[in-house]
Amino acid sequence: MTTPRRLLLVNGPNLNLLGTREPEIYGTETLADVERLVAETAAARGFEVRAVQSNHEGVLVDAIHEARHDCAGIVINPAGLTHTSVVLRDALSAVELPVAEVHISDVRAREAFRQHSYVADVAVVHVIGEGVAGYARAVTLLCDILTGQAEG
Ligand code: DQA
User: Domain of 111?
Assistant: First the structure.
């Protein structure tokens, strides 16, 4: 089977409120802006995108499981689940697709409870604290890996 030219974009809880949620931390761009940016960046590399956002962990797990049938990689901002969810980490690990972890804010410079990511060591790309633009860089780095153009 040839590798599918599709990425799954996963946004976790509360990211539906992007644009109005704590704009001093997360900026004023909306989830629709994020999904458009990711779709455009991926399209330039020949990939289409299926986007999911949910406030429910199980919905995200189901979407990640589905991806193993027809996606080549996953771009995920797990939001608060980053710091709590063994379940989400296990789902990402189970599907054995390359994962790019994105955080809009610099979680390393915030509260102590944001310092640990359950997802970090199942991800091959990490883009942290670059704002919404970080999603585009994550897509580019993931596409580099998928198309064999990654350095190193
Ligand atoms: C976030 C950082 C998380 O700590 C937080 O819970 C979020 C968003 C980010 O994109 O900066 O919801 O993942």
Answer: 6-146
Is-contact 138 33, C-beta < 8 A? no
Sort 58 into a burial class: Cβ within 10 Å, 0-12 / 13-18 / 19+: exposed
Domain assignment present for 142: yes
Mutate to test the pocket of ligand 1, among 53, 57, 75, 77 (most ligand atoms within 8 A of CB): 77
Q: Note the pLDDT tens digit of each residue in 1-43.
A: 567 799 999 999 999 999 999 999 999 999 999 999 999 999 9
Kindly give the distance from the C-alpha atom of residue 16 to the centroid of ligand 1, in angstroms, as a whole number.
12
Q: Determine the distance separating the centroid of ligand 1 and the alpha carbon of 2, expressed in angstroms.
A: 34
Question: Per the domain annotation, does 115 fall within a domain?
Answer: yes
What amino acid positions are annotated as catalytic residues?
26, 103
* 152 inside domain: no
118 in any annotated domain? yes
Phi, psi of 54, deg, nearest 5: -150, 155
How remote is the CA of residue 103 from the centroid of ligand 1, in Å?
Answer: 6
Structural domains of the chain, count: 1
Does the predicted TM-score (pTM) go above 0.85?
Answer: yes
